[in-house]
TrEMBL record:
Keywords attached to this entry: Cell membrane, Membrane, Transmembrane, Transmembrane helix
Membrane topology term: Multi-pass membrane protein
Listed name of the protein: Type II secretion system protein GspF domain-containing protein
Species lineage: Bacteria, Bacillati, Bacillota, Bacilli, Bacillales
Signal peptide positions on this chain: none
Subcellular location: Cell membrane
InterPro entries: T2SS_GspF_dom
Domain of life: Bacteria
Annotated Type II secretion system protein GspF domain residues: 155-282
GO cellular component, one term: plasma membrane
Pfam families: T2SSF (PF00482)
Major subcellular site: membrane
Keyword Cell membrane: yes
């Protein structure tokens, strides 16, 4: 019990010391993200701890994996900022869980099980947050893959009508309007760069890196290899690519349908058990 009291005291002292040292130092960094990341009251302390311990450099392998996901979600320019804030969130969670573990051990009068439960959650919650980030990236890539065949078909139609590839991309974005899909968000960036007279090859390469998907890379490579020639070579290449993309879209839709049906199994089992109880209870009471 004394050990848990000492642990709680150490964490509280560290909290107050770091809160004094980090006061008003990171307000601009934190306010930039608004409410996108929770536990804002812990953010200055965690940021100060990250900078002083050089945690991002020491955990380079793990951080690089998270940063790769942030590049896919937010782009190269914003990736480091989001990685830093995500690591800040993880440190905040670990500190709070350690404090809660010490408090549970103290309040339960030295119960090691309660302390161990707190330590378990200090590991489990960061893992869940990382998995949540991975799922967010996965969903984004799936949405891009579902929308890409339609974009390719629109480009084929517009190029057949006499438009250039650049004009076809611009027309696709204009026709789409205010859709908030991830693919069209990236295409709007492409159009903005094209209208600013940036080199087409550089713009398409940046688009491919931002999406970080093999199918998008194939699309950009196909366009870059054939857009100067134009005509039937480009159209034939895009049609072949469109066919492959539609097949992948069908597979994703089929997989989602199977996942949805598997999620219904548990509720159906509960309903079955409830029906069995309702039907069987009168017979049991009669006996």
């Amino acid at each position: 019990m004394i050990i848990y009291g000492i642990l709680v005291g150490i964490i509280v002292v560290i909290y107050f010391v770091l809160s004094v040292l980090s006061r008003n130092q990171y307000d601009e960094v934190i306010e930039e993200f608004g409410d996108q990341y929770p536990l804002k009251f812990m953010a200055p302390i965690s940021l100060h701890l990250i900078y002083k311990t050089r945690l991002l450099e020491r955990l380079h392998t793990q951080v690089s994996s998270i940063q790769g996901k942030m590049i896919s979600l937010y782009g190269t320019r914003e990736a480091y900022k989001h990685t830093r804030m995500f690591m800040t969130q993880l440190v905040s969670v670990v500190l709070l869980c350690l404090l809660a573990a010490g408090m549970l051990g103290l309040l339960s009068e030295g119960d090691h099980f309660m302390f161990g439960a707190g330590l378990f959650f200090s590991i489990l919650i960061p893992v869940l947050l990382v998995n949540q980030l991975s799922n967010k990236e996965k969903i984004r890539k799936q949405r891009i893959l579902l929308e890409l065949p339609e974009v390719v078909n629109k480009i084929i139609l517009l190029v057949n009508a006499g438009e250039t590839v650049q004009q076809a991309l611009i027309r696709c974005v204009e026709l789409n309007g205010g859709d908030d899909s991830p693919l069209y968000e990236e295409l709007r960036v492409v159009v903005n760069k094209l209208t600013s007279n940036e080199p087409f090859a550089d713009v398409m390469n940046d688009f491919s890196k931002k999406c970080a998907m093999q199918d998008v890379s194939i699309f950009t490579t196909t366009v870059l290899l054939n857009y100067r020639k134009g005509g039937q070579d480009l159209i034939l290449s895009l049609r072949e690519l469109s066919h492959d993309l539609w097949e992948k879209r069908k597979n994703i839709s089929r997989t989602k349908g199977e996942e949805a049906s598997s999620k219904l199994v548990f509720p159906l089992m509960l309903i079955f058990v409830a029906v069995m109880i309702i039907v069987g209870y009168p017979a049991i009471t009669i006996l």
